Amino acid sequence: MGSLDATQIAAFCDWISASVGGYGSIDNCDGGGSAHAYSTQASCVSSWPKVCPSVTAGALEDCVNSLGGDLCRQDTAPECAGLTQCGSADAGAD
Hints:
Blueprint: H1 6-19, E1 26-28, E2 34-36, H2 41-46, H3 57-66, H4 81-86
Antiparallel strand pairs: 1-2
């Protein structure tokens, strides 16, 4: 993911946003709390993870697809484990 250019990152941000309900969406999580999508494409792009260069775009896609649109699952979905260990799994936290 670290080698993506700005256009590719923006496209990924748009895809992730569409997958989780759109920019600015909020999911209320079981047990309280909530998970927030990035508010804008620009906030997603500026927060793009710069760590864990070995994490692939495919791993990010698998993680996002496993959420089923529910941002609350980002910390517990097995497909997101490699990303959360890097501190970069969240689809939004703006």
